[in-house]
Structure formats: structure tokens, C-alpha cells
Design goal:
about 475 residues, alpha/beta, Rossmann fold, pyruvate-formate lyase- activating enzyme, OB fold (Dihydrolipoamide Acetyltransferase, E2P), 3 domains, five-stranded parallel β-sheet, five-stranded mixed barrel, disordered N terminus, binds 5'-deoxyadenosine, binds iron/sulfur cluster
Length: about 475
């Protein structure tokens, strides 16, 4: 993928200049223009979408929760698997009808998918109603690109809005958060690991960390506003601060000194960088949730090597044993890919054995999806039927483990952050534990966004049930 250097440097003043131009243009419109942001993919994308929405609102748009009456639609795409791209393209396809009714509608496609040249080409040729594209590292250029699209009335599906991998981190973007008690805080962007199956390093660029002071200020402000569950985000958070005198464990230790009643979490970590120092900081922390998402990907050393993961099962188990020794009861979750090119039946069974050995609380399982431009995509692929069969066996194995793990929580009183009424039953509320497990209980509206204590009286593989425990 060609590296583009055409973006102007990040200049806060020019960002505000374009924001103001659009705000004035919007003020001239009789009825207030509306913006709809559609998000696919990971938490990082959700966090990015909160910035897209924040920027659009500061440009004078009103947020709407349906694309049908929107004047600006931003689709924030994911490229991690083919399915995610297909879903985004299908939704973009449906916007054709909205554009037919409103010729002034502006549709911007952002995120990981459009950082790939072949996808931009596809959008250009097959989706003529898409107005512009914007890569992930160029997110803060939305006001300029949007203004250019408005003024020129031209489509901007060009490399001009491509990812600029060399840019430093942009600060000061307005954020429209989706919740007033759970928040995402990006701490670093990009990835340098180049796992052989993964598109992320190509679409999100090289690792770059935010300044510690900026992160601390954001977390302090969130806690002061009453946020109770803060997740630090990065493709590989343990790489935070590489090349500086601060590492991720130091950052976490410092954030833990912020006064207030809140949980602090982070994701995602790479097992090769999960240090004892980090685990010690977690164990000694006041606010740091005892929850660790540590993607294993495969339980076989040869497959891990072919994946370019830089750890083996021994190294991985050392981290698991150490964290369980320091934090008994910690919730451990993971990602597994089945059907990586060349994975044999025996190698897959090593993954099943690893699951039984580690005893994850929860697993995010994925069928390998070849990504254009990555080394693994060039290898001979495993038939879909074999992949599907392995996937089903993986889920069945993990289901039993998750059931057993949750059974250990029977009769325990757990602290739960209440999210609101559950979808199916108006009297039943749901919330999340420190380990991020979902709990259902009979609640009241005043509990939403608050910590409550719930005594667990029923458990299944994917959820817990209980009664409020009065203090
Ligand atoms: N195919 C399937 N799963 C993938 N992941 C990353 N790339 C691929 C791919 N090409 C999974 C990994 C990663 C998670 C976010 O997505 O398990 O940890
Ligand atoms: Fe992808 Fe590996 Fe980077 Fe995670 S660490 S984003 S799996 S390349």
C-alpha cells in the first residue's frame, strides 16, 4: 500500500477555521441539518465515532439516530474480517435510496476499510453517491474535507484523504460520548506488530502514543463528570510510551491515583509485552479492574510462530499463572482464530487443550479471514467446511468452561454497574461486573449509571442473574 504524504500538518487553528465555515453555512439553512454516524467494528472505532459526532455537532449539525432524515451520513468502517467489510458495503448500498430522495445528502466513508486502495476504488466506481473518504489517522481533518466537498460539489474519493502514517497524535477534538457513565479513552494508535493475518498495521499505521498529561487530564475530567467505567484503548496498549521514559504500567499507576469511585480497564494487550510489572500495578491498584483481555490466537507454538506473534505457550502460561497468583478471581478473556493457513487437526486440538488449561471466562472466536496484502493471505487456505467444524468445536469446548467459571460466582455478592432496563423484560435491569460479565436483576430507574450490589442466584455460560443486596 502506498504511503501518502499529502495531508497538511495538524493545525488546530485551521481545523477550527473549517469548523466555523461549516457552522456558518449550516446557520444559513432554515431547518437545522442533521448528522448520522454508523459504526462498525471495535471499541477504537466506537471511540473514533464519538469524535466524528462531536466534530459534526460543533459544525452545527444536530445528531439523529436514523439515516433517513440525515443530511450528513458518516460510515465508520472496519476491515478486520471480510464479513465486516461486506456488512459496511451493504449498508452503504442501502443509502442510495436516501440519496435519491435528498440530492444534497453528503455521505462520508471513514475508518479502516477505506485505507485500502482497492476498497476506495470500489467505492469510487460502484457507489457514486459516496461523497468522500477519510482514513483513521486523518479523522481530525473531517472539517476540511467536508468543507472541500461542500464548496467544490465534487467527490473526494482520493488518496488525499488517506492515512498519513507519519502524523503525530491530534488532540482537542470535540467528543460526543455515547454514555454518561462509561467512557473510552484512546491512549495510543496504530500497531507495529504485523501479525501475519492482520490488516490493522496497514490501515491504522505505526504506533504513536498520546502524551501522558493529556490522558491524565481526560481521565480526571471524566471522573469529575461522574464517569464510573473508563476503558483505555489502543491496538496494543502495552506498547504505550515506547521510546519515551514512561511505559504502560507507569501510566496505569499514575491514573490509579485519580480520586473517585470508578473502574479503570484497558484493551488490547499483546502477550509478548504483558509484563509482571503491569500485573503488579494492577494487583496493587485501587481502581484498576481485575480483568485481563489477552488474545492467545492459537494454542500451538508452530502456529503462533507462523502468525508472527513472538511468544509461545510457556510464555503465555507464565503471565496467566502470575496474574492469578497476584489477583485470584481475576476475569481472563481472549481471542482465538481458527483455520489459520496450514493449521493441522493436531495443532487445532492444541488450542482446545490450551483453553482447558487456561480456563478463560470468555472467548471471542474468529474464523480466519484472508486479508489482501497480509502474508497469511498468500498461503494455501483451509477449506471453509474444516474451518466451520473447528469453530463449532471451539465454541462447544469454551461453552463448558464458561459455565464452570460462572458457577464459581453462585451466591457471591458482586458490585455491578447498572446499564438500564434489559431488552426483553421491562422490570429486569442489566449491568456489568468488574470482570465485565453481564448480570440481570430486578432494579429501578434510579440505579442506571450507578454501582449496585447483586447477590448471584443463577449462572449460565454467558450471563449471571441475582437480587439486589441492600447495604
Ligand atoms: N481473520 C480472523 N480474525 C482476525 N483477527 C484479526 N485479524 C483476523 C483475520 N484476518 C482477530 C484476532 C484479533 C481480533 C481483534 O480479531 O483474534 O485479536
Ligand atoms: Fe493486529 Fe497483531 Fe497488531 Fe493486534 S497486535 S492489531 S492482531 S497486528
Amino acid at each position: 500500500m502506498a504511503k501518502q504524504m499529502m495531508m497538511p500538518p495538524d493545525d488546530l487553528a485551521s481545523r477550527w477555521e473549517y469548523t466555523n465555515k461549516i457552522r456558518l453555512w449550516n446557520q444559513e439553512c432554515v431547518s437545522q441539518r442533521k448528522v448520522f454516524v454508523q459504526t462498525f467494528g471495535c471499541q477504537q472505532n466506537e471511540a473514533d465515532s464519538e469524535k466524528y459526532l462531536g466534530m459534526a455537532v460543533s459544525m452545527g449539525y444536530k445528531a439523529t439516530d436514523t439515516p433517513d432524515n440525515a443530511d450528513l451520513i458518516i460510515v465508520n468502517t472496519c476491515a478486520i474480517r471480510e464479513h465486516a467489510e461486506k456488512k459496511a458495503l451493504s449498508i452503504i448500498g442501502q443509502y442510495k435510496h436516501i440519496k435519491a430522495k435528498n440530492k444534497d445528502l453528503i455521505i462520508g466513508v471513514c475508518g479502516c476499510m477505506v485505507a485500502q486502495e482497492h476498497r476506495r476504488e470500489e467505492l469510487k466506481m460502484k457507489y457514486p453517491y459516496v461523497t468522500f473518504t477519510l482514513g483513521t489517522a486523518s479523522l481530525h481533518h473531517l472539517p476540511r474535507v467536508l468543507w472541500e466537498a461542500i464548496e467544490s460539489k465534487k467527490r473526494l474519493i482520493t488518496t488525499d484523504s488517506d492515512v498519513d502514517f507519519t502524523e503525530t497524535v491530534a488532540e482537542g477534538m470535540p467528543v460526543r460520548r455515547g454514555s454518561d457513565y462509561r467512557a473510552w479513552v484512546s491512549i495510543m494508535y496504530g500497531c507495529n506488530n504485523f501479525c501475519s493475518y492482520c490488516i490493522v498495521p496497514y490501515v491504522r499505521g505505526r504506533e504513536r502514543s498520546r502524551k501522558k498529561e493529556d490522558i491524565i487530564a481526560e481521565v480526571k475530567a471524566l471522573v469529575a463528570e461522574g464517569y464510573k467505567d473508563i476503558t483505555l484503548l489502543g491496538q496494543n496498549v502495552n506498547s504505550y510510551g515506547k521510546g519515551t521514559d514512561t511505559d504502560f504500567a507507569d501510566l496505569l499507576a499514575e491514573l490509579d491515583t485519580v480520586e473517585g469511585d470508578f473502574w479503570l480497564r484497558f484493551m488490547t494487550s499483546h502477550p509478548k509485552d504483558a509484563s509482571h510489572k503491569l500485573i503488579d500495578v494492577m494487583a496493587g491498584g485501587k481502581h484498576i479492574a481485575h480483568q485481563f483481555h489477552l488474545p492467545l490466537q492459537s494454542g500451538n507454538d508452530a502456529v503462533l510462530k507462523a502468525m508472527n506473534r513472538h511468544y509461545d505457550m510457556n510464555r503465555y502460561m507464565d503471565s496467566i499463572h502470575y496474574m492469578r497468583e497476584k489477583m485470584p478471581g481475576i476475569t481472563v478473556t481472549s481471542d482465538i482464530i481458527v483455520g489459520f493457513p496450514g493449521e493441522t487437526e493436531d495443532q487445532f486440538e492444541d488450542t482446545l487443550t490450551a483453553l482447558k488449561e487456561v480456563q478463560f471466562d470468555m472467548l471471542y472466536s474468529f474464523i480466519y479471514s484472508p486479508r489482501k496484502g497480509t502474508p497469511a493471505a498468500e498461503k494455501e487456505q483451509i477449506p471453509d467446511t474444516v474451518k466451520g467444524n473447528r469453530f463449532d468445536r471451539l465454541l462447544a469446548t469454551q461453552n463448558e468452561i464458561a459455565k464452570e467459571k460462572n458457577l464459581l460466582l453462585q451466591d457471591q455478592i458482586l458490585r455491578v454497574l447498572c446499564d438500564g432496563v434489559s431488552k426483553g423484560d421491562p422490570g429486569v435491569y442489566s449491568g456489568r461486573t468488574e470482570g465485565n460479565k453481564i448480570v440481570f436483576f430486578k432494579g429501578t430507574p434510579d440505579m442506571v449509571g450507578q454501582f449496585v450490589n447483586v447477590k448471584i442466584d443463577k449462572t449460565e455460560a454467558f450471563a449471571l442473574w441475582g437480587e439486589i443486596e441492600k447495604t
